[in-house]
DNA sequence: AGCGAATGATACCCTGTGAGTATTGATCGC
DNA sequence: GCGATCAATACTCACAGGGTATCATTCGCT
């Protein structure tokens, strides 16, 4: 049995007329006679009652017609689904999101934009740290990650592709009652007297190392009193007055009400926010996602970032 | 797209290996390569990722495989259903049952027997009068009827086929306190003094006419005081003492507690209980039903009836 | 009653396509 | 580096499915 049999049978069953079905199918009538004869032989069932003039569906034929209609429409749906999937309009993308990502409006806007323009593609957003994202990407447990460039070392580079989305400036988080809270900017020298909170090397090695290098280069390495594994912990500690914090984030507003962000004049430590994915991944949906994220939150050659139309 | 494509794709998708799939399908491997190439071209989707060594389902291929599995099993189910329907093991038979039928145990037993042996065939039992059954049969609203022969006249005979199932004896229904209740049998002469209940000509013309003819032939036409359209009405009236009733039924027990059935020695009016169906009806389930009913409640050539093994 | 139209079945021919064999190209494992 | 593995390609062949012409039957309209 082939779909041809079913298509022919459906046409004849609907019309209960070989001639009209032949016209609709754009084949000659004898072809239908033969195919239906073969189909009936294979099933061992008379699908049509041969009347003196014309034909009529038998009881078995009527039941079979219902099934065939369902089957053929299911075939169409399956083909359509495969096509949409192949063209990237349908599917699931597993996106790794470290908590820092939420701070960048071009990321959340980009995600929203994609979801609106590709409603068939489910975004499986997974909150996980940058280091974990890289590992998950490599073992195929994640399709795309959003991380700081500092977390990718050269060994990671092979097999992974990346695209810059924007930048994160490293700033000082201070409690609103802190003397430095009202300042336009501060210098590293001013931090020497302060208890400073910083990242944890264990969970963000590359970032930690680059931050430390920059501090040392500035000539005024601060006094770190606490390593924080996440931004939210760091902000919490700053907000209860445990010290000032070195954080890399977007914009000038902290996610906690009573904490202010102050630029550091002589540090100039910038991190790139990257989209990362497997170079071998040929998923059309992924390509579409990357394209849209890059396009939406396009990074200008000069270094800043702006929204594209 | 043909089922061949789907069958090949399913085999390769399950194995993720062209060679083994070719063996399982009993075709040469190049045939698969070509069919899959065509299928992918038609869908515009790469269903398999071509690895340096071997193949792997793509995301679209994996989704398509799920659909294809469903489609192919549905095709099998549809074919199976059509076959079962064609062989009479599946379907629906609309059976007309007049209330008299319930009195004959070979009918209820036959129905039960059929239901047990053909669980795939639904019996759509419809309670309707004999005359209505004949009409419904002719216009295709009913597949088989169970009626007294008296209701079929020669005009009905054409187009309808019949088979005898058993006999109904015409007896006298009397209230248990009635003087005749204890008798072994009565004669028509004895009924002359009685108020008699009989059938209604409007709803059972053939039966009524034959009953009347027999009464007149007996030489003692009784005095009918009431026409009853149904057996249950007649029995009700007898049970409240409105008179004695002439009824045709099976066995010697009335369906109402305080009514007795007494044979009428000199009437000898017997009616055949018939299975009736359209001669042109080629439904296998119907044929199976007729065969089983006749076989089960087989009527012996001598005239009586007995149960067959 | 007879003729023509309608309808599906049959006969016959021909082309396209699907399958087979042999081979290539590429890669992996030892 | 050699042989094994695996899919793709080249080429040939047979047959299945489609087309045209025709038949058999029946129905409708004179």
TrEMBL record, chains A, B:
The answer to whether keyword Cell division applies is: no
InterPro entries listed in its UniProt record: LysR_HTH_N, LysR_subst-bd, WH-like_DNA-bd_sf, WH_DNA-bd_sf
Transmembrane segment boundaries? none
Pfam families membership: HTH_1, LysR_substrate
Q: Which residues form the HTH lysR-type domain?
A: 1-58
The UniProt entry, under SUPFAM superfamilies, shows: Periplasmic binding protein-like II (SSF53850), Winged helix' DNA-binding domain (SSF46785)
Keyword Transcription regulation assigned: yes
Q: What keywords would UniProt list here? A: DNA-binding, Transcription, Transcription regulation
Q: To which protein family does this belong? A: Belongs to the LysR transcriptional regulatory family.
This protein's name: LysR family transcriptional regulator
User: Which species is this UniProt entry from?
Assistant: Sphingomonas psychrotolerans
């Amino acid at each position: 049995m082939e779909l041809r049999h079913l298509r022919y049978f459906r046409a004849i069953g609907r019309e209960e007329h070989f001639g009209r079905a032949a016209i609709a199918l754009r084949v000659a009538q004898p072809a239908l006679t033969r195919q239906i004869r073969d189909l009936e032989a294979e099933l061992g069932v008379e699908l049509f009652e041969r009347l003196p003039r014309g034909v009529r569906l038998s009881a078995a034929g009527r039941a079979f017609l219902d099934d065939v209609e369902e089957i053929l429409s299911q075939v169409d749906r399956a083909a359509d689904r495969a096509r949409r999937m192949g063209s990237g309009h349908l599917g699931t993308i597993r996106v790794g999101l470290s908590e820092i990502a939420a701070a960048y409006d071009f990321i959340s806007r980009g995600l929203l934009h994609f979801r609106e323009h590709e409603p068939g593609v489910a975004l499986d957003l997974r909150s996980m740290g940058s280091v974990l994202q890289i590992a998950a990407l490599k073992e195929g447990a994640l399709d795309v990650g959003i991380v700081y460039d500092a977390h990718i070392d050269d060994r990671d580079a092979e097999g992974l592709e990346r695209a810059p989305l924007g930048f994160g400036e490293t700033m000082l988080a201070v409690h609103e009652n802190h003397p430095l809270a009202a300042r336009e900017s501060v210098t590293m020298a001013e931090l020497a007297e302060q208890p400073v909170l910083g990242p944890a090397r264990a969970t963000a090695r590359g970032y930690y190392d680059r931050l430390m290098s920059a501090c040392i280069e500035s000539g005024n390495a601060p006094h770190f009193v606490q390593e924080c594994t996440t931004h939210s912990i760091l902000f919490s500690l700053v907000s209860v007055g445990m010290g000032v914090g070195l954080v890399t984030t977007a914009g000038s507003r902290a996610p906690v009400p009573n904490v202010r962000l102050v630029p550091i004049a002589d540090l100039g430590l910038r991190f790139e926010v990257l989209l990362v994915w497997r170079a071998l991944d040929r998923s059309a949906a992924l390509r579409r996602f990357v394209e849209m994220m890059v396009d939406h939150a396009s990074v200008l050659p000069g270094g800043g970032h702006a929204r594209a139309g």
